[in-house]
Specification:
This protein has about 140 residues and is mainly α. It has a domain of about 70 residues. It has 5 helices and no strands.
Length: about 140
């Protein structure tokens, strides 16, 4: 087998296992050793890896656009504008809900204060104005 066929098979195998892992609900995490990453930027191996990685990312992007029928620039712009408008609408709804939650929280605070003083106010209401005046006059 040629080296290209082996590389293609291994890439397909990796993509398949990544998809299976993703479908299984497991999160993929990349651990990067920053020190080694900084040192390896100067090496020709890193340049090759970066080129291959960039090409793979471009291929994934193109595949996504083709699968979602977004190859026409106008359609892509229209779809992205719709997504942006939907996002902004959702953000506005979230802000409105947050404001309402703040109002409800304030109202709950006042209700608790009323509950604490309710009995005292009821007793105060039972006392007639005359009794209060007599107390102050004596």
């Amino acid at each position: 087998m040629s080296a290209m066929k082996i590389d293609a098979l291994s890439v397909e195998h990796v993509n398949k296992s990544v998809k299976e892992t993703w479908l299984a609900g497991q999160k993929l995490e990349m651990l990067i050793d920053l020190q080694n990453s900084i040192k390896s930027k100067d090496s020709p191996g890193y340049a090759h890896w970066a080129k291959v990685f960039s090409l793979k990312q471009a291929a994934k992007t193109l595949l996504f656009l083709q699968e979602n029928n977004l190859t026409d620039m106008k359609k892509l712009q229209y779809t992205s504008q719709n997504a942006k408008d939907d996002f902004n609408a959702l953000q506005s709804e979230i802000r409105a809900i947050d404001n309402r939650l703040e109002q409800i929280s304030t109202l709950q605070k006042h209700i608790r204060a009323y509950r604490k003083t309710k009995d005292i106010y009821a007793q105060y209401g039972k006392i007639t104005l005359d009794k209060i005046i007599r107390k102050w006059q004596t």
